[in-house]
Amino acid sequence: VIAVDLHCGQIQGFFGPETPCDNLDGSVVALPYFASKEVGLSENKTVVVSPDAGGVYRAKQFREGLNAMGMNAGLAMIIKQRAEANKVSQMDLVGDVK
Fold first, then answer.
1. How far apart are CA 24 and CA 4, in angstroms?
2. DSSP structure string for 31-98
3. String of b and e for 21-51 (b: at least 16 CB within 10 Å)?
4. 25-63 pLDDT, tens per residue?
């Protein structure tokens, strides 16, 4: 099994010892693409947003990769309030976003 950017690394163990699972890092391809001038992102107006608290680590890693390529990107996340399972009642954006 080949996966790209699993939500958490422990998912690889779900497949058991009989089925090898490789989790590939999508930023290897995505970082050069988004940092390229052809995409048209502004160097000081780009913000990487995590859709939830569980994705903040990956978003931070991606932002650091963009910053290493000269993008000077910010970081933000969405905090979701759930009324019940699978139903979001409110979303708040937290971070330095203008």
1. 5
2. HHHHHSTTT---TTS-EEEESSGGGHHHHHHHHHHHHHTT---EEEEEEEEEEETTEEEEEEEEES--
3. eeeeeebeeebeebbeeeeeeeeeebebbbe
4. 889 889 999 888 888 888 788 999 999 888 898 899 999
pLDDT of residue 8 exceeding 90: no
Do 65 and 32 form a contact (C-beta atoms < 8 A)?
no
DSSP three-state, residue 12? helix
CA distance linking residue 76 with residue 97, whole number of Å: 7
Catalytic annotation, residues: 80
